[in-house]
Amino acid sequence: xxxxxxxxxxxxxxxxxxxxxxxxxxxxxxxxxxxxxxxxxxxxxxxxxxxxxxxxxxxxxxxxxxxxxxxxxxxxxxxxxxxxxxxxxxxxxxxxxxxxxxxxxxxxxxxxxxxxxxxxxxxxxxxxxxxxxxxxxxxxxxxxxxxxxxxxxxxxxxxxxxxxxxxxxxxxxxxxxxxxxxxxxxxxxxxxxxxxxxxxxxxxxxxxxxxxxxxxxxxxxxxxxxxxxxxxxxxxxxxxxxxxxxxxxxxxxxxxxxxxxxxxxxx
Length: 267
Ligand SMILES: [Zn+2]
Fold this sequence. Notes:
Blueprint: E1 13-15, H1 23-26, H2 29-38, E2 41-47, H3 54-63, E3 67-71, H4 83-95, E4 100-109, H5 117-133, E5 138-143, H6 146-155, E6 162-164, H7 171-178, E7 182-186, H8 196-204, E8 210-212, H9 234-244, H10 249-263
Parallel strand pairs: 1-2, 2-3, 3-4, 4-5, 5-6, 6-7, 7-8
Helix pairs in contact: 4-5
Bound molecules: zinc ion.
C-alpha cells in the first residue's frame, strides 16, 4: 500500500539527491519541479554523474537557484573518464566555486566488475582531494564499499563532511560516517517493510544525523515499484520518516532543512 502523503502547510522539504538532468526526468523537468513544489519540496540538489553533465548543471543552477548542483564523476561512469577530466573539474571549481555546493556524486561501487576497481579508486581519491582543496562537502555513493570509503576519507584526513547517499544499515555503520561529519541520506528505502535495520537506525540516531532524498528517477518507493521515481515523492519519504520518529512533523521538517543547509553550507 502506498503511504499517504503528509504535508502541513508550514513544512518545506529539501531533496538532497535528485537526478533532474537525466533523460527520464529532463523531458518533463518543469512539470516535475512544479509537482515537487506542490508537494512541499522547496529546494533540491542535482548531483552530476559524468563530465558530460557538468556544463548543463551549471546552466540549470543559473536558471533556477533552488536547484543546487554537485559536480563529479559517479563510479558507474568511471570507465569513461581519466585524470584529464579531473583537470577540467578543477578548472570549473576554480571558476564556479560559489555555484557548486558539493563534489558528487562520487564514491566506490564494488558490486561492479572487478576490473573497474582501480579506475574507481583513482578517480575517487582524486575527487576527494579536490573537495579538500576547495573545502567542499562530498555526496558519496557506496555499494559493498563502506570500509574502503572510510579508509580513503581517513587517509586523506578529510574533514569537510558530506552526505552518505542512500543510507541503509545499522547504527554502527552510520556512526563511522557521522563521526567524520557526514549526514545520512534517507530515501525510499525506509518505505519498505524489509528495511527494518535502517528503520531502527532512523528511530534511534540523533535527529541531526539525517537529510532526505529521493534519488529520482531511481529508487521507487514501496507501492511504486517499476515506476519512475520523482522529487514529488519526497513528501511520502518524509511521512515515513515522521512515523519512525516521536517529534512533531514541523519540528522534524525544520531539523532536516537545517541539517541540509549545515552540511552543504547553504545558510
Ligand atoms: Zn545518484
